[in-house]
Amino acid sequence: MSIHVDTIEGFTGMFDGEGAWYDATGKSAAYRIRQTNDSTAEGFKVGFKHDFEDGGVVEAHFIMTWIAPNLIRVDVAGAPVGNGFVFGGFCHYHMKFGDKFVEVSYRSVAEGLEVFGSSTTNAKGNYIAWKEILRRSAA
């Protein structure tokens, strides 16, 4: 069976939504998201801003570059930090920052994106996972 996908149709655009994180100590909190995914000549770029209930803000930007059919390299600030894949309406990637591993999955749905992820440690050193529901935005 040959499945070759080097397109991110369904993942591009601007999205707004809500998410919630859960850590290994039983704590959780909600947050708002604004995310933009843009196609590039070599792959695509992902940028997001998370506004947390406690007033904290996290912003990040990743460059995804096709390295082979269906496979991507993840770069942050010009340095490779991980890899991933795209098959149809599903994109998954992992990244390493020091001793921390982060993995994220996007599922394209009619209204936008469902995002699932985890990190081996959060700011307090605990395992954390999250789920986000993002809807396509007009602007």
Helix and strand arrangement:
Elements: E1 13-23, E2 28-39, E3 43-52, E4 57-68, E5 71-76, E6 79-87, E7 90-97, E8 100-109, E9 112-119, E10 128-136
Antiparallel strand pairs: 1-2, 1-10, 2-3, 3-4, 4-5, 5-6, 6-7, 7-8, 8-9, 9-10
Overview of the molecule:
The protein has 139 residues and is mostly beta strands. Helices cover 0% and strands 68% of the residues. Strands 1-2-3-4-5-6-7-8-9-10 form a 10-stranded antiparallel barrel. Strand 7 and strand 8 form a beta hairpin. It is globular. The model has no long low-confidence stretch (mean pLDDT 92).
Q: What would you say about this model in short?
A:
By secondary structure, this protein is an all-beta fold.
What are the key terms here?
68% strand; mainly beta
Form type: globular
Largest sheet: 10 strands, antiparallel, barrel
Rg calc: 15 Å
Average pLDDT across residues? 92
Number of strands: 10
Alpha-carbon distance between the termini?
A: 40 Å
Strand order of the largest sheet: 1-2-3-4-5-6-7-8-9-10
Task: Give the SSE order as H and E letters.
Answer: EEEEEEEEEE
List the total number of helices.
0
